[in-house]
C-alpha cells in the first residue's frame, strides 16, 4: 500500500513540535536580496514538437512553453515532455519552467518550515530563492521522481532507488513480485538479493526438492516485462544478486548465456529477435541486471587457486566444494558472452557500512550505486560540475570549491527535508527510510570537466582532480548532516550504530589525508575537503548524523540532459563532435566546447586552436590535428573512436573516487569486441584489489538482441546485392587499358607567385595555369639554395607538375598531401592558413584556396579567413549573395534565423547529416564505429550508455532508475 500524508509521521519528530534548538541559518550563494531569481533572466516562448524519426509520427506536442533563453532545445524538450504535469491541452497542464520549479521548491520550503529546519522566515525565503536559482540555472537537479511527483495530488514519491528483501517462503516470494511491480509502475527500479532462498540442491520441509532462486526469477522477469509493455515511460529496471557461496550460483551465472544461445537459434530460424522485436518476449531473464556477490574468502581462493565451499541456505554447512578459479572463469565467460552477470564485492561494501548493527548490505539498486539496508530507498540529486569551473577564456582556470561546498549544503538540506513529506510504495520501505534517511548526492559532467581543464580521463592528474571534488562533496554533505542532527535530531538508527558510523567517517577522513595532490587545480579543493572532514569528525562526535548515507554516483541520464551536460555521471565524453538541435527546427554538429578550453589551458594560441578545432570538425578525432602535440592527444580520448579509453582506465577512475562515496558508482566498463575472457578476469580481479564496490563489463556486440535500424538492415541487403553485381561484372567485362596523354602548357601562361614562411623556413611558390585556368605546374624554391630541402622541393614540384599535365586532379593532390606532418612546421605568415603541419601541407592548402572552386575545397575543410569568420557570424561558410531573400538565408544558415549569443572563438558548427538524430548516431557516421546500444522505444533514436543504463538523447527516456 502507498502511504498517504496522513498515514504516518514524516520526520524524526512530529510536525510542528518546536524545540529549544535553533534552526538553520541559510546563506546566500547566488541570489540578491529583494530580487527574485526569475527576474534576473530573459524568458521566451518555444514550441516543443517531438517526433519518431522512423515513421514521422508525433510523440509529443506542446506549444508556447516558457523557458529561459539560454536553455538548449534538447533540455526544453525533455523537461517539457517528461516533467510537466497535467494533461496536454487542458488548463491544468503546466506551461513553463516557473510553474514546474515553483511546484517543487515551494513544497520543499513549506515542509522545511513545518518541520522546524529554518531559524526564521527570512532563512526560509533565502532557501527558496537559492534552490530556485540553482534549478533555474541548471546547477543541479533532483532525480526524476521529484520532478514527476512533488507538489502534485498523487503520492509524493521522491526516491528513484529501492532495495527489497525476500525470504525463503512462498509468501515472501509473492510479496516480492507485488512490491517490485508497484515500484516499476511508478517509474522507479528495485534490486534484491535472492540468496536467502534455499537452493535446488536442498530439501523442502515436505521432503521434496526446492525449486531454487533461478526458477523464481522467471516469474519476476515475466512480471517486469508485462509492466514494461503495458505503457510505462521506460523499461522496468531491476537488479538480481546472488551470493557466490549459494549452491545454485553456477545456474545463476549461466541463465543469460543460455538465453543468448536461444536468441541466436531463433534469429537464424527467421524470428524477429531484435530488442523490442515481436518474438523477443519468448526469451527469459532479459528485464534484469544480474550480479554475483563475491566475498573476500572467495577472491582469496581465486588468488591462491584453492577450493571454495558452497553453503546450504538453511543450515550454513558446506554441501559442495568447487574450484574457485574455475567458478571465477565461468563468471568471466558469461560476462564475455552476454555482459551478465556483473560483480559486487561484499567485503569492501560492508567495510564502509555505517549501520552494520541494523543488518548487512546484501544488494543494490538496478544501477549499482545505492547500497544499504534491505527494504530502504534513496533519493538522488546531482550537481553539474561544469557550473563551478571558472575560466577567463585565456587558459586561466580554477574550480570554485567554496561555492561548490555551499551548493552541496543547500542540496543536502533540501534532500533531507524531502524525506519528511515523502510517500513510499510499501510500509516497510517507508519506515526504514525515515529511520535511516539515506541520501545520494552526486555529480554529472566529470568527463567534460576533466577535458576542459586539460586532464586526460585516464591519467593521475584526472583521477586526482576527480577524487578531490568527490571528497569535498561527501565531506561537506556529512558536515551538513551533523549540523542538521543538532537541529532536528540524528536518524533513528544512529544510536545503535554510532560507533560504526563514526568509524566510517574516520576512514573517509584518513583516505583524504593520504590522497595524492597533483597541481594548482586540485590543491585548493583538497584543502577545503580536509577542513570539511575535520568538521565532520568534530561535529559528528558532538551531534551524531542526520543521515546514514550521503552520496552515490548515479547514471544521471534524463537529469543530465535536462541540465545540458556533455557527459553523464562519472563517464568520459562519448566523442568530440556533438549533435545539437536548433530552435525552430534543424540540427547542427558541433565540436565539443570543452576542446578549446582544454587547448587554452595547455597553452595553445587562438590560431592553433582554430586549426585544431577545424580538423576535429572534419575528422571527428584529434589524431594528426595541425599543431597539436602528440603527448596531448590523451586529453581528448573518449568512450568511442580511434583513441577510446582502455577498460582498465575506467576501473582506475572508479577506484580513485570510491573512498569518498558513501554508496557506490554506477558504471559499465566498455571493452572492445576483441577483448578476451582473460582480460575480463583481470578487470574483475583488479577491481577487487583496488577497492571498487561493484562493476559490470560490456563487450561490444556481445548482445545478439541489440536492434538494427531499418536503414542498417537495408544497407546489409544492398551490400549483398552489390557484391553479387560486382562478381557478375568482373566475369563478363573485357579488360580495357587506358593510357593518359600529357597536355603541355603553352609558352606563355598566367601564374601566381606567393612568398611564405612555415615554422621559420622561407620559400616561394610559383603556380602556372592553362588558359582555361586549370593548374598546370608548380615551382617551389626554398631560401637556402643547395640545401637538401631545396633540392627535394625542386624534385617534388617537377613530379607534381608532370602529374597535373597528365590529368591528375588538383583535389587529389590536396586530399593526399594536406595534414602531412614533418618539420619545418608551425605558424605561417598567411592569414588564410595560420598553421601548417609541414611545407607540403601549406603548399596544397594555398593551392586549393587559389585554384579549387568553393564547393570542392569546402568539402575538404579548407576555407579562407573571411569564410571562417562568416561561419562564426552566420553558421555558414557560403558566400553571401545580395539577391538571396531572408527566408532562403534562414534555411541555409539556421543559426542566423534566431537571436543567439555570440559564439566564443574556435566554436565550429555545421549542419548535421539528415540521417543523424543523436550524438551516438553522429559518431557512428563520422568515425565509422558502432555505438552498441538499443534504439529508444519512444522515438527510435540510438541510445547511449549512462552508467550501467542507457539514455536517449532525443527524448530523455532511460532504461535506468534515476
TrEMBL record:
- Entry cofactors: adenosylcob(III)alamin
Identify the residues that the record assigns to the Ribonucleotide reductase large subunit C-terminal domain, covering every copy. 159-698
Q: Keyword annotations for this protein?
A: Cobalamin, Cobalt, Disulfide bond, DNA synthesis, Nucleotide-binding, Oxidoreductase
- The record places domain TSCPD at 749-849
All residue ranges annotated as the Ribonucleotide reductase class II vitamin B12-dependent N-terminal domain in the record: 48-138
The keyword Nucleotide-binding is annotated on this UniProt entry? yes
Reactions mediated catalytically: a 2'-deoxyribonucleoside 5'-diphosphate + [thioredoxin]-disulfide + H2O = a ribonucleoside 5'-diphosphate + [thioredoxin]-dithiol
Q: Please name the GO terms of the biological process aspect recorded for this protein, alphabetically.
A: DNA biosynthetic process
Q: What is this protein called?
A: Vitamin B12-dependent ribonucleotide reductase
Give the organism the record lists. Streptomyces vinaceus
Question: Where is the organism placed in the taxonomic lineage, from the top?
Answer: Bacteria, Bacillati, Actinomycetota, Actinomycetes, Kitasatosporales
Amino acid at each position: 500500500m502507498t502511504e498517504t500524508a496522513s498515514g504516518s509521521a514524516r520526520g524524526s519528530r512530529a510536525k510542528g513540535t518546536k524545540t529549544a534548538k535553533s534552526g538553520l541559518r541559510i546563506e546566500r550563494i547566488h541570489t540578491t536580496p529583494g530580487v527574485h531569481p526569475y527576474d534576473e533572466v530573459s524568458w521566451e516562448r518555444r514550441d516543443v514538437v517531438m517526433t519518431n524519426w522512423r515513421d514521422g509520427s508525433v510523440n509529443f506536442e506542446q506549444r508556447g512553453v516558457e523557458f529561459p533563453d539560454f536553455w538548449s532545445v534538447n533540455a526544453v524538450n525533455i523537461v517539457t515532455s517528461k516533467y510537466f504535469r497535467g494533461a496536454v491541452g487542458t488548463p491544468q497542464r503546466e506551461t513553463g519552467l516557473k510553474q514546474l520549479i515553483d511546484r517543487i521548491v515551494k513544497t520543499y520550503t513549506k515542509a522545511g518550515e513545518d518541520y522546524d529546519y529554518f531559524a526564521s522566515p527570512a532563512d526560509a525565503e533565502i532557501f527558496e530563492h537559492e534552490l530556485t536559482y540553482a534549478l533555474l540555472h541548471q546547477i543541479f537537479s533532483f532525480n526524476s521522481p521529484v520532478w514527476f511527483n512533488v507538489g502534485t495530488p498523487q503520492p509524493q514519491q521522491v526516491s528513484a532507488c529501492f532495495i527489497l528483501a525476500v525470504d525463503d517462503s512462498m509468501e515472501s516470494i509473492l510479496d516480492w513480485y507485488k512490491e517490485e511491480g508497484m515500484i516499476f509502475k511508478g517509474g522507479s527500479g528495485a534490486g534484491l538479493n535472492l540468496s536467502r532462498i534455499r537452493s535446488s540442491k536442498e530439501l523442502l520441509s515436505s521432503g521434496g526438492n526446492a525449486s531454487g532462486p533461478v526458477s523464481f526469477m522467471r516469474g519476476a522477469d515475466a512480471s517486469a516485462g508485462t509492466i514494461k509493455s503495458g505503457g510505462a515511460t521506460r523499461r522496468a529496471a531491476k537488479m538480481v544478486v546472488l551470493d557466490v557461496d549459494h549452491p545454485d550460483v553456477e545456474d545463476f551465472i549461466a541463465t543469460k548465456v543460455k538465453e543468448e544461445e536461444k536468441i541466436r537459434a531463433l534469429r537464424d530460424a527467421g524470428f524477429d529477435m531484435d530488442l523490442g522485436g515481436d518474438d523477443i518476449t519468448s526469451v527469459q531473464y532479459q528485464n534484469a541486471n544480474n550480479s554475483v556477490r563475491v566475498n573476500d574468502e572467495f577472491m582469496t581462493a581465486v588468488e591462491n587457486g584453492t577450493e571454495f565451499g558452497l553453503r546450504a541456505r538453511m543450515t550454513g554447512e558446506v554441501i559442495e566444494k568447487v574450484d574457485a578459479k574455475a567458478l571465477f572463469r565461468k563468471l568471466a565467460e558469461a560476462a564475455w558472452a552476454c555482459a551478465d552477470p556483473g560483480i559486487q564485492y561484499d567485503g569492501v561494501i560492508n567495510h564502509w557500512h555505517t549501520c552494520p548493527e541494523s543488518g548487512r548490505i546484501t544488494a543494490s539498486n538496478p544501477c549499482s550505486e545505492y547500497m544499504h539496508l534491505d527494504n530502504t530507498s534513496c533519493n538522488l540529486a546531482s550537481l553539474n560540475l561544469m557550473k563551478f569551473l571558472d575560466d577567463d577564456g585565456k587558459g586561466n582556470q580554477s574550480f570554485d570549491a567554496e561555492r561548490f561546498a555551499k551548493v552541496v549544503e543547500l542540496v543536502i538540506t533540501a534532500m533531507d527535508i524531502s524525506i519528511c513529506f515523502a510517500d513510499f510504495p510499501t510500509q516497510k520501505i517507508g519506515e526504514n527510510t525515515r529511520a535511516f534517511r539515506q541520501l545520494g548526492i552526486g555529480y554529472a559532467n566529470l568527463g567534460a570537466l576533466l577535458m576542459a581543464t586539460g586532464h586526460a580521463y585516464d591519467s593521475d592528474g584526472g583521477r586526482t582532480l576527480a577524487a578531490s571534488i568527490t571528497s569535498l562533496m561527501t565531506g561537506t554533505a556529512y558536515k551538513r548532516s551533523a549540523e542538521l542532527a543538532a537541529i532536528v535530531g540524528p536518524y533513528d538508527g544512529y544510536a545503535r550504530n554510532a560507533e560504526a558510523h563514526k568509524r566510517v567517517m574516520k576512514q573517509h577522513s584518513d583516505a583524504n589525508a593520504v590522497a595524492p595532490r597533483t597541481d594548482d587545480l586540485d590543491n585548493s579543493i583538497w584543502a577545503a575537503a580536509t577542513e570539511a572532514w575535520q568538521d565532520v569528525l568534530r561535529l559528528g562526535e558532538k551531534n551524531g548524523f542526520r543521515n546514514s548515507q550521503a552520496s552515490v554516483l548515479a547514471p544521471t541520464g534524463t537529469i543530465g540532459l535536462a541540465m545540458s551536460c556533455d557527459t553523464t555521471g562519472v563517464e568520459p565524453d562519448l566523442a568530440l563532435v556533438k549533435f545539437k538541435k536548433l530552435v525552430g527546427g534543424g540540427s547542427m554538429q558541433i565540436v565539443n566546447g570543452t576542446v578549446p578550453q582544454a587547448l587554452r589551458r595547455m597553452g595553445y594560441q587562438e590560431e592553433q586552436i582554430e586549426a585544431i578545432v577545424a580538423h576535429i570538425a572534419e575528422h571527428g578525432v584529434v589524431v594528426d590535428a595541425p599543431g597539436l602535440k602528440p603527448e596531448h592527444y590523451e586529453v581528448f580520448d573518449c568512450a568511442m573512436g580511434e583513441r577510446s579509453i582502455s577498460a582498465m582506465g575506467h576501473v582506475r577512475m572508479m577506484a580513485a573516487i570510491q573512498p569518498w562515496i558513501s554508496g557506490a558508482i554506477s558504471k559499465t566498463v566498455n571493452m572492445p569486441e576483441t577483448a578476451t575472457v582473460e582480460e575480463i578476469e583481470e578487470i574483475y580481479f583488479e577491481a577487487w584489489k583496488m577497492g571498487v564496490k561493484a562493476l559490470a563489463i560490456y563487450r561490444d556486440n556481445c548482445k545478439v538482441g541489440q536492434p538494427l535500424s531499418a536503414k542498417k538492415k537495408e544497407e546489409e541487403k544492398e551490400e549483398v546485392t552489390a557484391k553479387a553485381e560486382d562478381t557478375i561484372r568482373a566475369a563478363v567485362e573485357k579488360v580495357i587499358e587506358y593510357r593518359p596523354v600529357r597536355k603541355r602548357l603553352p609558352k606563355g601562361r598566367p601564374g601566381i607567385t606567393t612568398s611564405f614562411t612555415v615554422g621559420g623556413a622561407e620559400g616561394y611558390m610559383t603556380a602556372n595555369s592553362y588558359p582555361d585556368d586549370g593548374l598546370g605546374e608548380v615551382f617551389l624554391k626554398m631560401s637556402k639554395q643547395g640545401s637538401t630541402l631545396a633540392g627535394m622541393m625542386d624534385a617534388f614540384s617537377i613530379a607534381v607538375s608532370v602529374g597535373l599535365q597528365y590529368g591528375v586532379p588538383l583535389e587529389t593532390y590536396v586530399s593526399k598531401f594536406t595534414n602531412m606532418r614533418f618539420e619545418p612546421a608551425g605558424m605561417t605568415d598567411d592569414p588564410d592558413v595560420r598553421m601548417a603541419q609541414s611545407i607540403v601541407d601549406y603548399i596544397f592548402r594555398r593551392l586549393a584556396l587559389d585554384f579549387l572552386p568553393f564547393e570542392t575545397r569546402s568539402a575538404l575543410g579548407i576555407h579562407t579567413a573571411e569564410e571562417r569568420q562568416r561561419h562564426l557570424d552566420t553558421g555558414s561558410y557560403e558566400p553571401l549573395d545580395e539577391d538571396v531573400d531572408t527566408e532562403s538565408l534562414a534555411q541555409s544558415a539556421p543559426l542566423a534565423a534566431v537571436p543567439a549569443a555570440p559564439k566564443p572563438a574556435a566554436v565550429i558548427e555545421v549542419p548535421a547529416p539528415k540521417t543523424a538524430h543523436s550524438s551516438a548516431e553522429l559518431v557512428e557516421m563520422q568515425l565509422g564505429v558502432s555505438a552498441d546500444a538499443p534504439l529508444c522505444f519512444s522515438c527510435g533514436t540510438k541510445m547511449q550508455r549512462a552508467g550501467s543504463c542507457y539514455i536517449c538523447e532525443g527524448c530523455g527516456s532511460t532504461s535506468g532508475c534515476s
